[in-house]
Fold each of these.
Amino acid sequence: MMPSRLRMSSRRCIFVALAGVACLLGCILDHGTGAVAGGGSSETTNGTVVGFVRNPDGSAAATARVSLRPRDFLKDTLTVTGTLRREAEAVTDARGRYVIDSVLPGDYFIEANIRDTLGTLRDFSAGDRDTIFLDSLWLKPTGVVVGQLTSDPKGIPGAYIQVYGLDRVARADSNGAFLIPNLPEGSYTLHASLPSGGLESRDIAGVAARGADTNDIGTVRISSFEDEDYATWPYARRITLNTTASGAGVAGSVAGFPLLVRLNSANFDFALSAGMDIRFSGKDGKHLRYQIERWDAATQQAELWVKLDTIHGNSHSDYITLHFGKPGAPDWSDAGHVFDSADGFGGVWHLAEEAADTATKGLYRDASPAAQNGDDRIVAKDTSGIIGLGHGFGLGDYIKMQPSATLRPQNQIQISAWYRGKATANLGSTITSLGDAYGLRVEPSGNVRMFVFTGTAGIWSLVMTKTVNVLDSSWHHLAGSFDGKELKVYVDGTMMASAVAKTAAIPYTLGPDFYIGRHGTSKRDYDFTGSLDEVVVLRGVRNADWVRLNFESQRVNPTLLEY
């Protein structure tokens, strides 16, 4: 998401419970059949991986276990045993040959192991090919990695230590010490999944396994976000929030708000920060959670989201403090804390990603903890946006995903997005929809429609503006809501239309898929054309002050923030 910027935390992609239970969200592996499984799609071709495993003397390695894992795979801590699991995707035959089928496109580690003393590992990428022939895997003695997790002044007992891309998980003892056996020679990234107590899970990169040797990585200190002392940060800058008529003009207070903070050469010295040291505190000194969407030191531009408990209406006294410039500070950027499902965020897509092809599964990342990542079906290469990067869509381009319950609210929903366009398809441009159960659309006239299905064939509850035209090639903030009684449409922070609903609940009977840029049942007359940024689905309805604050804080040249 961030060109020339810091690495974002892996916590976006996986949710790890701090009670010591880690759940992998993403690729699900079918251990029973020996095949790598996932969310199947008729639009991609599953492949087959074929190769040979050799002993150190060059002979065929029969009965070697061969396993294939996505590079971001983490073993479930619920089944921790401290040793390799016994089942595998494939077992080599007398010639040392293995075959693994049903391989979806993606990036993988493939590991061969025999007697838990010899092993080898390599990485590769699979595309839409029928068969992938890999070079022979040569077994070597495996090594051991040991270390200790500590949070001064004591160790961290009970933590789980996982290895990205491998079936390995160990647990720290009462002193925080851990041991990971049987690692093929190579460089790894470990993931420390920590118990409760205010500490946060983290990655440990560049850990080497050295043949038959033991590599002691020493003490790894885990810091606590809440316990950091911002007085030790060398630089600080106050940012005042102005919601009076001279600023954002928001009358009422807004709670639980993700505030956008833009940094550039006019308000920030990028030479004083690497990004990872950025911190925010509130007026009362409270540490504020944040996400760095983009950090581009080369162009001196950054966009950051900060979670605020309350922004008071018609006020010029609220402020936050930006702290920066501390060498060695850990990276606490975490979208899941800012766009928390507990606050009603069903899905949040910054749309900052881009790929060379149109077959990348899960390319467009959901910033909410639900991690509903969208498959890439976009040919257009335009990534201009109003907040960092966004994405252009040509007719026929779209993003598709299998929605979880967070995108299926029963009787209250709010959809918003930044939109830029000058024309629509024959019957309009669908911004987003789930089946034909609900959606937000730009009409050929430039007006904006919000609709929900009533459950009766051919009947939808809908509301549409009558006097606006957003087809002017400028960025506009569009929002639609349904609260079980009424539908509303907002354009650029102002409510422009409302209507009484014909239903009190949303039935999800008209298609299972969630789309950005396409009608929910793929009706081509509603294909999207134009550009989108910051697509958000909320479970629940926020009031007019919330919507206005979204527009005022995110628009070009906002008057809300004073540096």
Note: The CA atoms of residues 20 and 195 lie 5 Å apart.
Amino acid sequence: MSRIQLYDTTLRDGSQGEGVNFSLQDKLMIARKLDELGFDYIEGGYPLSNPKDEEFFQRASEMEWKHAKITAFGMTRRKGIKASEDVGMQALVNSQAPVITIVGKTWDLHVTEVLRVSLQENLDMISDSVAYAKSEGREVIYDAEHCFDGFHANPEYALQTWKAAADAGADMICMCDTNGGSLPAQIAAAVKALTEEVDVAIGIHCHNDSELAVANSLAGVEAGAVQVQGTINGIGERCGNVDLVSMAANLKLKLGYDVLTADGISRLTELSRYVYEIANMNFRNGQPFVGSSAFAHKGGMHVHAVNKIAHSYEHITPEAVGNARRILVSELSGRSNIMAKTTKFRLEEDKDLQAKILGAVQDLENDGYQFEAAEASFDLLVMKNAGTYQKTFDLDHYRVNVENQSREPVTEAVIKLAVNGESQHVVGEGDGPVNALDAALRKALTGSYAGLAQMSLVDYKVRVINSTEGTAARVRVVIESKDRDDVWSTVGVSENIIEASWIALVDAFEYKIHKDRGAVGDSPSA
């Protein structure tokens, strides 16, 4: 069947969700992962809204993209000004993004009561903005905001707004269920009406306020839409957006459409958990297709049936989306993920080693570790179990001291270790414990491992695992590091936040050292 384009707006619409905040490095890493899996469009944000989004487009323009088109998002020109003179439109063009998405008003209520312009002025704003972006040589997607509410309230005017965009040269009109209150039949009727009136490709963008975003998006595709806009895991403002993870799986596995790369669907679980970790959010166990409970079975006749005929209780095979079946009473898991992750070490034929690694992963995950967004720590685990790991130093002890001096706390880390048989006893100062430990460890090791001078820490995340324990709770620390070529993440878990940070920090240094030795294959960066 034909291809359905997947347009990801996790970095813009998704970041508007409560509690969601991406750093610049987060956005670049997620974008790289999305491109790797074959997403067609990646919306980076509104370049005029903040310096981070502006820098994202600058950095993105310097990167090579295998599949995705980087897209800048913005509004139509302001009233009473030429599109070419509007600062928002100029920012979109100056972003260097090959695709520009322009959002405009469909609902006459918003035109007269929110924008406070005439209905004709709104049409002119749509037309002028699309035409200007096209004149600058960009692909233009017109997002028809409140599309279905507007069509229901005043279908004649809604049609005029769509035609204004189409006549100005829009490459696509995306119909947005901005309030998330439409039903599938309403979505299908409006999409069909638009396809009959304009000769432009149609997209669909649904919010999940009625728990119907996936159903509504599928209805839009069935009615003629060729693009679905949404976010990974459905994150976003209010109740979120359509979950592109579920959409991709439904479109490919249920309807037979062409989406993502050849192996993209089988990596959806990896993608989902990666974004959760980057966003520092908890996984949704019951999330369709990719949640840890999506293929979990418990007790009696149910488990007996699954063991005999798996599809009697599973609508697809877990492996189709990179997930795994779980029998809760005895926790069974396949080796497919371990096999895929050990390919670069050429260990995929060693079944005994895979079982050993799987057992180690299960034990560590039981203690609170997660390796989906900490692949550098996983690579070190593989090397340790395979016997290819080379110890880089022997720790005697470390100590961290924090003193409050003249209002500003001063942090000092002392580390004693042996590297290449030589004892090192060093002191490092920093803005906090992790920064001080990093400074001390760098001072102790750089003389023996010169490549560490190129390495820097770019992000640090902490998550409480068992919050019921209060201040004695176990924490998981994830550290992102980078050098000139790659970005990698490591993880540590402990009841002591300094120890958890130390574990993740040491893994970051050791991964860099082994990478420079050529011992870890391809980088695990996004």
Note: The mean pLDDT is 89.
Amino acid sequence: MCGICGIVNLDGRPVDEALLRKMNRTMVHRGPDGEGYYINAGRREGWEAGKGPGNVGLGHRRLSIIDLEGGRQPMGNEDGSVQVVFNGEIYNFLELKAILESRGHRFRTRSDTESIVHGYEEWGEGVFERLRGMFGIAIWDERRKRLLIARDRVGKKPLYYSQNGKTFSFASELKALLEDSGIPKDIDYRALDCYLSYGYVPSPLSIFRAIKKLPPAHYAVLERGELSVKRYWDLDMSSASEGLTEREAVEKLQELFFEAVGIRLISDVPLGAFLSGGVDSSVVVAAMAELDKGHPVKTASIGFSDKRYDELDYARVVAERYGTDHSEYVVEPRALDVLNKIVWHLDEPFADSSSIPTYYVCEMARRKVTVALSGDGGDETFAGYVNRYYMSRLEDRFRNALPVGLRRALLSPVARIYPRLDNWPRAFRLKNFLTSISSPLEIAYYRAMSFYFLPEAKRRLYRPETAMEIGDFDSSDILGNHFRENRNPDVTSRVQYVDIKTYLPEDILVKVDRMSMAHSLEVRAPLLDHKIMEYMGGVPSTLKLKGGVSKYILKKAMEDRLPRDVLYRGKQGFCVPLAEWLRGDLKDLIGENLLCGDSRIREYFQIPYVRSLWNRHLSGKQDNSAPIWGLLMFELWHRRFLG
């Protein structure tokens, strides 16, 4: 796992090598084992060709995983005309190497990077769709004078870029680009509006107007000063396989899953796994133990003193069953001592509080291993968010059964006047249900995913100047565009597809990448192998969510390997007792940051409304922990990155 960066001066100016080095060294945590640079030869008028620095520079930070001696980057082809910097792992590199050698290419290393170098020579930009793994890649083609950057299919690895009239630059992290004082730090208010809905900034936006994120499954080509962005892969969930039996689905899934875990065990450094006690991490550990019986799996788990959020007992069951080398850590409210570090590593405002335990489980795992396998992606691939997917299915049945006019004329007004007893869960759920079935699926889903501020709350939150900057931008369009890409009549499949395009890459995978890289730990996610995802895309949703059983087909596939108490208990989620923390040990954090006279949020938001949210939370009348936390994380981010 590594960090990459680069500069292309479109006007032919020589690259500022000092700036390139500063950008690269900002990401030392992503690759503490070494650094490397490439600058092409200068060809400006008046220079002798090949003398002096040119207009293209690439930088690389290395975390050594495979071919510790030979895998240094940037890596070029035989004549140096193709140069690659790469962050990630290519799991099918040996297969690609065999194909390329049969076509005359000669390899000098055992590194997976070299398969990209020769793969580009052979297939051009077609190389990206042949890669099986996670990656952020940059390729400089000196002969054609063009740069390509690419991201893996589901967005495990990040890639930011910025372009003005004279310079194009890119990096694995936003903070590396900010080393260039020529890139303005003006906030993109569309990104801010999205953040306040979802708790993250979705691609292609970043929190700054001058910086963009390359979306997952896309590559960009910079040629003759023009940038074109293209998608090279999409997950087909348009229809289900006809006549597929449960037994056939189980057998095929077992084959794909054990293969996906097996190819992720290739490493020249110590390797282990996260073990939460949930289904996804448990099945990964079970497969690892079965595939490598000679070595106990090294596992790491996080728990809480509040037993409502603690899964350590279930993690121990799996650890004991497979004889793992197990470590545990209990997260307390004082864990917020590292909050400023977390904010710095996240790069952008990010409100998912589970980044805290993720930070600690990565820190603990790194004490023993350099690579850890995780269960990330199981919820999205196998329909694990039972409330979201089951309720979407139920709501859609009511939506289809009732005439549109009746739903709009009766249910929507009833939902509005229904008692606002938000601290009474049943009343709150019924109010949400009535609101959802009175709206189209896309709007109902948008409201369900607006964990932090709904549109009516944002209208009360924004200062007039903020509302004016946002204008008529509608953050629901981010989700709506993905709904329009998948017209599968099966509502579960449609919602899964949108989750895979948004919540998974922009929240779950951001959290895992940034917190693992904070500790120079590589994390591999076999449940997000694209062959598994493509197969499951064609499996009927009734085999993923069967009745009230989520991840049904995955559980059936692993039923003889794990206890039923682990597989079939209710979903708990990897979250912190945030509401209680904010009313207790962390109470002063809000007054010191959000409600003080020099808070940065005053520039954007109505403080009286923020104060009312906080007071209602403290009184116990409402659980406002999500919006309060979202505002706190924006405040801390602003102080760290903008002063």
Note: The chain has a mean pLDDT of 90.
Amino acid sequence: MGLIRAILESVLQTNVGTWLKRSRAGFVCLKQGPESRQVLKRCYSSSQEVIAERITGASHISTHKPMPQLLKRLSRKPQNSRFLFLISIIILWCENDGFAQTGVFVPEMVNVDAVFSNFMNDWNIPGGSIAIVKDGRLVYARGFGYANKESQELVQPHHLFRIASISKPITSIAIMKLIDQGQLNIDAKVFGMDGILNNSDYSTILDSRVKNITVRHLLQHTSGWDFIDGRGDPMFYNSYIAWQMGEEPPVGPVTIIKFMLTTQTLDNEPGTQYFYSNFGFCILGRVIEQVSGQNYENYVKTELLNPLGISEMQVGRNLYENKAPNEVKYYDFPGSSLAYSIYGTGERVPWPYGGFHLEGMDAHGGWIASAIDLVRLLVAVDGFDTKPDILSQSSIQLMTTSSNANSYYGLGWGVNRWNNWWHDGSLPGTSSILVRTANGLGWAVLFNTRPSNRRDFTPPMDKVVWEAIRGIDKWPTHDLFEQVISDARMPETLVKISGDKQEGMPSTELAMPLVVEVRDQNGEAITGISVTFAIATGGGVLSVETTTTDSSGQASSVLTLGNDLGTNSVAVTVIGIEQPVTFVVEAVATPDFDGDGRVGFPDFLLFGVQYGLTRNDEGYDARFDLDGDGAIGFSDLLIFANHFGKPVSS
């Protein structure tokens, strides 16, 4: 233990010490048990042997030093012993399959990568997505793990997940929008002759107190139903309700409401007691339909989502074969039981696919969304002046003010005395949380599973991002929202861009073939549309080409990438349609020095040696000064390892 501690303390004296203290990798052998410490000790003692084994056969690599001299140099100096130990940590860290990530790498937020990946490993989560906003800007959006384990499809930041009860804030925002439009009063009665839902579907009411329920009560979960007397939540008893009402399963929201009104009494006076109610938000979905004259989903899309450029959020579907494009696959926890199909066939099915009627849960738990689009909606209702809000300040204040019945819940949002707002969601195969903080931060976390001990899972799911961002000293200044283009911004045309992502060594110039296709909404090609292709790196714009679409509606170009390490931004601007549209695509120059198709241990080693670990060394190359401190050192090596450290194809 003394040797390992001494080595770690030595490493922590380098300029990467602060970073290691923030990461769980740096102190793993100090905080975990003897077994973990012994693993790292063995890694350290055999570092030179491992290096020799891994670079055998790679002597064709061009380096500043011949291979034997390289090894001799590494083993001679004490500071290189620290280097070898650090490499051992990187082996354990970056070659972990659970660390696979997609999306834009953000050096300032590398701790989020580590903490989030460790969290998913700890809870055996197949795939997840996280998006973080700061002062209205999207500063972080990454995918982790698998959207589909069987096909090995990685989660991308744009992947759609079921968000379960995060649907409730969406419904609440829609209600507030109707209030702002002057179409609804928060204290309007919902049932009875003077109520909003006063047609024949809702005319038979067993308990007269139901006529006192208001829109506010439904939003606050104080409508009077508590579902704790053995009856259960009616939103999950679809087959039983269908049988009781003499209808074919699965039945929709109107039938469920009729069943409750005609057969069930309230448990409390409306407005007096808080009991979380999916059913109450099911009713709110019908209120929105009645007042707006539109289908619930259509109203939300038309009035809330489309104006924000959100085009893929939608109410999900029950069955895997009906899933939306870019939607992940959902996994129940290992050993979970099967459910009887809600289609009344008697078939036993996995809970996420036919165990409940997702389409019928629209207003309380039915939406699917990407993490990026959720935080895009969040910054439009956060009450800050960084981005325009789609609700009035009075409606936002109303929506996030707690009730007398529950000081931690407003109207469809969890709230607290620090002015933080949130909502989590949970269904078999789904876990999610959406958070807005008082200091200008916000995030969405989405997973494609729900652990068996789900009640023990929600608190750590809430804490993981707080833990990850605690050590961030300097927030990024970029806004990734500007790089995410939605078809909703092109109402009169359909524009599609395609191209093969190109990758190679940094010393290689790469060709990036791109094709833009412009068609109208009928699918007809539009000719003569101006398209500008430009590629830019840290060194500036490398090439620009402007052309027009041909008779097939296509324009193409082959751009030459530079040799900058990492992602080259290729901007394609389409001019001449209703609104100019700019797409940003990525091409990656990867430091696969040994040409084995993977950025691995030898590449890390040669990065450190070839490009120098000292300031002003002749091997210094500013492209690899990833932390911008004027020297290439251990912190650059760690950023390098975190960014790459995967097969070139990933």
Note: Residues 78-94 form the longest helix (17 residues).
